[in-house]
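Researcher: Here's the sequence for the chain we discussed earlier.
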Amino acid sequence: MPPRKRIRGTKAAERAGVNALREFLEARDCVVQEVDTANDFGKDLLVDLTENREITGQTIAIQVKSGRSFSRNEIWGIPARPVDLNTWLESSIPVFGVVYDPDSDVLHWMNLSAYVHEEMDARHEHKDIGKAQLVERDRFKGHFVAFPKGQTLKGETWGHFAEAVNAYGRRFGGRSLLDLMAQDPAAQLSAVHDCFALGRGDARALLLLRHTITELSAWALAAAIAALSHCVPHPDIFWSERNWIPQSVRDRVAQTFDWAPWELLHMIRGLEEVGNEGFPVWERGGYGADFVILLWNTPDVCYTLSVALTVACREYDSEVAFRTLILYQYFLGVREDNADIANTISELVSRWSKLARHPSAGELVSLIEEHGWVDIF
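Model: Thanks. This is the structure I predict for it:
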């Protein structure tokens, strides 16, 4: 008997994954369009999410895999070739990945677009600390993309998945970043977090955050200071794959940390407002420490703080002025070897009534006269 064509063993498994996912999504009123296999270039399904049976406008593509071959040491994921990574990067709509385990009837998922845009470079650089520096031609080297452990699609996790799609859709389209200019403090804070997420793969998001710093209100401002402090050496950050920023991004952002006096005063005032709500700011590990880190390599930081202090004494309240004074004497101590800090601070307190009236002014002057310099914390 002449040989006959055989159906690939993987075809039934692939079909099972697509069917299981489609059934799950349609049960939650999603509009699912299957991509014809002749036109399948890594996008098996196009999915529109709905809310109260109304189209939300959030559309994603899903690449579906199926079978135990996509599990390595109980970690599910997708082997990605360079062309796959580039496709996810350049896709005009977000791409998610789903792997179906037919043995347990479980759907594992991951946001593949977020991975290549926001995480891939940072993860690889963190993993390769101490090794040869990654060159651009190796950026899209193929590798196994491991899905977050336990991230599955089921009834009780549907809300988490839908929110992840919606949140990334806002970031992906850039709309969320506009909320840096919002009047709503919660919207600003969310936009700051999105800038940090996007900035791990694209320096422009963190540059935008840096250059809108004076538009941010207290808690969003504190979060922005913490995010930007990841771009310079920071002794109090426990670095991991989740917060690592590639060196190329850090260098580009840190170059802009030439702060103007009015920027410093806006940040100091915002941190004082956070502190007034009972949150410990000016201590190691607090937002105040992050702020000092941002100033550390600022050119002429002592001069800039002296100008800021003059403005604060004229236009701001006594708490902002006094905090600026503390910062000024601190940086005089660490930057100016021959500075007569005791006389300088005593003269400033005598000159400005706003400083003299502060309840801690006398204590500060006494400490500086005794020790020559006072630490911020």
